[in-house]
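Notebook, student rotation project (T.W.).
Task set for the rotation: take a protein with a known small-molecule partner, predict the structure of the complex, and write up what can be learned from the model alone. Partner molecule chosen: S-adenosylmethionine. Sequence and SMILES entered below by T.W., checked by me.
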Amino acid sequence: MLTSQMAKSQISCWDKGAFAAMKKKKLLLVGLVCAVAAVFAVGVRGAAAEEVRRLAELMGWKAGIFVADIGAGDGEYTFAAVERVGAAGKVYATEIDAKKIEALKSEVAKRKVANVTVVESKEADTNLPAGCCDAIFLRRVYHHLTKPAEFDANIVRSLKPGGRLAIIDFPARAGLDPVEGVPGNRGGHGIPQKIVIEELSAAGLQVEKIVEDWPEDSYCVLFVKR
Ligand SMILES: C[S@@+](CC[C@H](N)C(=O)[O-])C[C@H]1O[C@@H](n2cnc3c(N)ncnc32)[C@H](O)[C@@H]1O
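Predicted structure of the complex:
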Protein backbone atom coordinates (compact mmCIF):
# COMPACT_ATOMS: atom_id res chain seq x y z
CA MET A 1 0.00 0.00 0.00
CA LEU A 2 2.67 2.38 1.13
CA THR A 3 4.83 1.36 -1.79
CA SER A 4 2.01 1.92 -4.23
CA GLN A 5 1.26 5.33 -2.65
CA MET A 6 4.94 6.20 -2.86
CA ALA A 7 4.99 5.04 -6.43
CA LYS A 8 1.88 7.16 -7.18
CA SER A 9 3.39 10.19 -5.53
CA GLN A 10 6.63 9.55 -7.41
CA ILE A 11 4.72 9.36 -10.67
CA SER A 12 2.79 12.50 -9.84
CA CYS A 13 6.10 14.14 -8.87
CA TRP A 14 7.55 12.99 -12.17
CA ASP A 15 4.39 14.21 -13.93
CA LYS A 16 4.72 17.61 -12.32
CA GLY A 17 8.42 17.72 -13.09
CA ALA A 18 7.90 16.54 -16.64
CA PHE A 19 4.98 18.91 -17.09
CA ALA A 20 7.05 21.81 -15.78
CA ALA A 21 9.91 20.79 -18.06
CA MET A 22 7.57 20.52 -21.02
CA LYS A 23 6.05 23.91 -20.19
CA LYS A 24 9.53 25.38 -19.94
CA LYS A 25 10.46 23.80 -23.28
CA LYS A 26 7.26 25.16 -24.87
CA LEU A 27 7.96 28.63 -23.48
CA LEU A 28 11.53 28.43 -24.72
CA LEU A 29 10.28 27.38 -28.16
CA VAL A 30 7.72 30.21 -28.29
CA GLY A 31 10.41 32.62 -27.14
CA LEU A 32 12.78 31.33 -29.80
CA VAL A 33 10.15 31.66 -32.53
CA CYS A 34 9.37 35.24 -31.40
CA ALA A 35 13.05 36.12 -31.28
CA VAL A 36 13.65 34.72 -34.78
CA ALA A 37 10.59 36.61 -36.10
CA ALA A 38 11.77 39.84 -34.47
CA VAL A 39 15.31 39.45 -35.77
CA PHE A 40 13.95 38.66 -39.23
CA ALA A 41 11.63 41.72 -39.20
CA VAL A 42 14.40 44.03 -38.02
CA GLY A 43 16.79 42.39 -40.48
CA VAL A 44 14.43 42.95 -43.42
CA ARG A 45 13.82 46.56 -42.40
CA GLY A 46 17.53 46.95 -41.75
CA ALA A 47 18.37 45.57 -45.21
CA ALA A 48 16.02 48.02 -46.93
CA ALA A 49 17.35 50.91 -44.86
CA GLU A 50 20.93 49.88 -45.69
CA GLU A 51 20.20 49.71 -49.43
CA VAL A 52 18.46 53.07 -49.28
CA ARG A 53 21.44 54.47 -47.36
CA ARG A 54 23.72 53.30 -50.19
CA LEU A 55 21.33 54.69 -52.82
CA ALA A 56 21.15 58.03 -51.03
CA GLU A 57 24.94 58.23 -50.94
CA LEU A 58 25.30 57.13 -54.56
CA MET A 59 22.62 59.49 -55.88
CA GLY A 60 23.52 62.43 -53.64
CA TRP A 61 20.14 62.62 -51.91
CA LYS A 62 19.58 65.34 -49.38
CA ALA A 63 16.66 66.41 -47.20
CA GLY A 64 13.92 68.08 -49.23
CA ILE A 65 14.44 66.25 -52.53
CA PHE A 66 11.72 64.51 -54.53
CA VAL A 67 12.21 60.81 -55.22
CA ALA A 68 10.20 58.16 -57.10
CA ASP A 69 10.25 54.45 -56.24
CA ILE A 70 8.90 52.90 -59.47
CA GLY A 71 7.34 49.46 -58.94
CA ALA A 72 7.37 49.98 -55.18
CA GLY A 73 5.89 46.55 -54.31
CA ASP A 74 5.00 46.53 -50.62
CA GLY A 75 6.64 49.94 -50.16
CA GLU A 76 9.48 48.79 -47.95
CA TYR A 77 11.96 50.94 -49.90
CA THR A 78 9.51 53.85 -50.22
CA PHE A 79 9.13 54.09 -46.46
CA ALA A 80 12.87 53.76 -45.94
CA ALA A 81 13.38 56.54 -48.53
CA VAL A 82 10.87 58.91 -46.98
CA GLU A 83 12.79 58.84 -43.72
CA ARG A 84 15.82 60.14 -45.58
CA VAL A 85 14.19 62.95 -47.60
CA GLY A 86 12.45 64.32 -44.52
CA ALA A 87 9.26 66.33 -44.16
CA ALA A 88 10.27 68.85 -46.83
CA GLY A 89 10.89 66.07 -49.36
CA LYS A 90 8.52 63.70 -51.09
CA VAL A 91 8.43 60.13 -52.36
CA TYR A 92 6.20 58.89 -55.18
CA ALA A 93 5.48 55.16 -54.88
CA THR A 94 4.27 53.75 -58.18
CA GLU A 95 2.76 50.34 -58.91
CA ILE A 96 1.01 48.60 -61.79
CA ASP A 97 -0.64 45.95 -59.62
CA ALA A 98 -4.08 47.04 -58.35
CA LYS A 99 -3.84 45.05 -55.09
CA LYS A 100 -0.41 46.49 -54.32
CA ILE A 101 -1.71 50.00 -54.99
CA GLU A 102 -4.51 49.49 -52.45
CA ALA A 103 -2.10 47.98 -49.92
CA LEU A 104 0.33 50.89 -50.42
CA LYS A 105 -2.46 53.42 -49.92
CA SER A 106 -3.61 51.80 -46.68
CA GLU A 107 -0.01 51.60 -45.43
CA VAL A 108 0.46 55.32 -46.15
CA ALA A 109 -2.75 56.06 -44.24
CA LYS A 110 -1.76 53.77 -41.37
CA ARG A 111 1.68 55.37 -41.04
CA LYS A 112 0.17 58.87 -41.49
CA VAL A 113 2.92 59.98 -43.87
CA ALA A 114 1.80 63.07 -45.74
CA ASN A 115 4.71 63.13 -48.17
CA VAL A 116 4.23 59.76 -49.88
CA THR A 117 2.04 59.77 -52.98
CA VAL A 118 0.90 56.48 -54.49
CA VAL A 119 0.67 56.54 -58.29
CA GLU A 120 -0.93 53.98 -60.58
CA SER A 121 1.54 53.06 -63.29
CA LYS A 122 0.73 51.70 -66.75
CA GLU A 123 2.74 49.37 -68.97
CA ALA A 124 4.05 52.19 -71.12
CA ASP A 125 3.63 55.15 -68.77
CA THR A 126 4.93 55.88 -65.28
CA ASN A 127 2.09 58.42 -64.80
CA LEU A 128 4.53 60.58 -62.88
CA PRO A 129 4.33 64.34 -63.45
CA ALA A 130 6.85 65.89 -65.83
CA GLY A 131 9.97 67.23 -64.11
CA CYS A 132 8.80 65.96 -60.72
CA CYS A 133 11.91 64.20 -59.48
CA ASP A 134 15.49 64.71 -58.44
CA ALA A 135 15.97 60.95 -58.16
CA ILE A 136 14.13 57.91 -59.48
CA PHE A 137 14.93 54.30 -58.68
CA LEU A 138 13.68 50.95 -59.94
CA ARG A 139 14.65 48.06 -57.71
CA ARG A 140 14.19 44.71 -59.42
CA VAL A 141 11.53 46.23 -61.66
CA TYR A 142 13.25 47.04 -64.96
CA HIS A 143 13.28 43.39 -66.07
CA HIS A 144 9.46 43.39 -65.64
CA LEU A 145 8.89 46.26 -68.09
CA THR A 146 6.93 45.13 -71.12
CA LYS A 147 7.23 48.42 -73.03
CA PRO A 148 10.67 49.66 -71.99
CA ALA A 149 11.20 52.24 -74.77
CA GLU A 150 7.97 54.13 -74.00
CA PHE A 151 8.42 53.70 -70.25
CA ASP A 152 12.01 55.00 -70.38
CA ALA A 153 10.91 58.11 -72.31
CA ASN A 154 8.46 58.78 -69.46
CA ILE A 155 11.12 58.31 -66.81
CA VAL A 156 13.38 60.80 -68.58
CA ARG A 157 10.47 63.28 -68.85
CA SER A 158 9.90 63.04 -65.06
CA LEU A 159 13.53 63.69 -64.14
CA LYS A 160 14.61 67.26 -63.50
CA PRO A 161 17.72 68.38 -65.42
CA GLY A 162 20.66 66.97 -63.46
CA GLY A 163 18.32 64.36 -61.93
CA ARG A 164 19.52 60.80 -61.45
CA LEU A 165 18.09 57.37 -62.17
CA ALA A 166 19.27 54.18 -60.45
CA ILE A 167 18.47 50.76 -61.85
CA ILE A 168 19.03 47.90 -59.43
CA ASP A 169 18.66 44.61 -61.21
CA PHE A 170 20.31 41.26 -61.90
CA PRO A 171 21.18 39.08 -64.90
CA ALA A 172 18.69 36.28 -65.66
CA ARG A 173 18.71 33.63 -62.93
CA ALA A 174 18.10 29.94 -63.31
CA GLY A 175 15.04 28.62 -61.52
CA LEU A 176 12.91 31.74 -61.99
CA ASP A 177 9.93 31.66 -64.34
CA PRO A 178 10.32 33.86 -67.43
CA VAL A 179 8.53 37.23 -67.21
CA GLU A 180 5.57 37.39 -69.58
CA GLY A 181 5.46 40.04 -72.28
CA VAL A 182 8.99 41.42 -71.96
CA PRO A 183 11.31 41.75 -75.00
CA GLY A 184 12.97 38.48 -75.98
CA ASN A 185 16.54 39.69 -75.40
CA ARG A 186 16.44 39.51 -71.57
CA GLY A 187 17.62 35.90 -71.53
CA GLY A 188 15.15 34.77 -68.85
CA HIS A 189 13.99 36.26 -65.53
CA GLY A 190 16.36 39.19 -65.10
CA ILE A 191 18.26 41.45 -67.48
CA PRO A 192 21.90 41.83 -68.52
CA GLN A 193 23.41 45.13 -67.37
CA LYS A 194 24.49 45.84 -70.98
CA ILE A 195 20.86 45.97 -72.18
CA VAL A 196 19.82 48.32 -69.36
CA ILE A 197 22.66 50.66 -70.38
CA GLU A 198 21.82 50.45 -74.10
CA GLU A 199 18.11 51.16 -73.58
CA LEU A 200 18.48 54.05 -71.13
CA SER A 201 21.31 55.61 -73.13
CA ALA A 202 19.03 55.47 -76.18
CA ALA A 203 16.39 57.27 -74.07
CA GLY A 204 18.87 60.11 -73.54
CA LEU A 205 20.52 59.41 -70.16
CA GLN A 206 24.22 59.19 -69.43
CA VAL A 207 25.85 56.50 -67.34
CA GLU A 208 27.46 58.07 -64.29
CA LYS A 209 28.51 55.02 -62.30
CA ILE A 210 28.20 51.23 -62.27
CA VAL A 211 28.22 49.40 -58.95
CA GLU A 212 28.83 45.69 -59.40
CA ASP A 213 28.68 44.61 -55.77
CA TRP A 214 25.10 45.51 -54.93
CA PRO A 215 23.43 43.23 -52.32
CA GLU A 216 21.89 39.92 -53.35
CA ASP A 217 23.98 39.42 -56.49
CA SER A 218 22.56 42.52 -58.10
CA TYR A 219 24.14 45.46 -59.88
CA CYS A 220 23.22 49.12 -59.72
CA VAL A 221 23.61 51.41 -62.73
CA LEU A 222 23.41 55.12 -62.06
CA PHE A 223 22.34 57.46 -64.88
CA VAL A 224 22.14 61.23 -65.03
CA LYS A 225 19.97 63.53 -67.14
CA ARG A 226 22.21 66.26 -68.57
C1 LIG B 1 10.16 42.08 -57.95
S1 LIG B 1 9.00 43.27 -57.51
C2 LIG B 1 10.02 44.51 -56.73
C3 LIG B 1 9.27 45.34 -55.73
C4 LIG B 1 10.12 46.40 -55.01
N1 LIG B 1 10.71 47.33 -55.92
C5 LIG B 1 11.19 45.75 -54.16
O1 LIG B 1 12.36 45.85 -54.49
O2 LIG B 1 10.83 45.13 -53.14
C6 LIG B 1 8.57 44.03 -59.07
C7 LIG B 1 7.43 45.01 -58.94
O3 LIG B 1 7.32 45.79 -60.14
C8 LIG B 1 5.95 46.02 -60.40
N2 LIG B 1 5.83 46.42 -61.82
C9 LIG B 1 5.96 45.64 -62.91
N3 LIG B 1 5.78 46.38 -64.02
C10 LIG B 1 5.55 47.66 -63.62
C11 LIG B 1 5.30 48.88 -64.29
N4 LIG B 1 5.24 48.97 -65.63
N5 LIG B 1 5.10 50.00 -63.56
C12 LIG B 1 5.16 49.94 -62.19
N6 LIG B 1 5.39 48.80 -61.51
C13 LIG B 1 5.58 47.68 -62.21
C14 LIG B 1 5.29 44.72 -60.01
O4 LIG B 1 3.92 44.86 -59.78
C15 LIG B 1 6.07 44.34 -58.75
O5 LIG B 1 5.48 44.85 -57.58
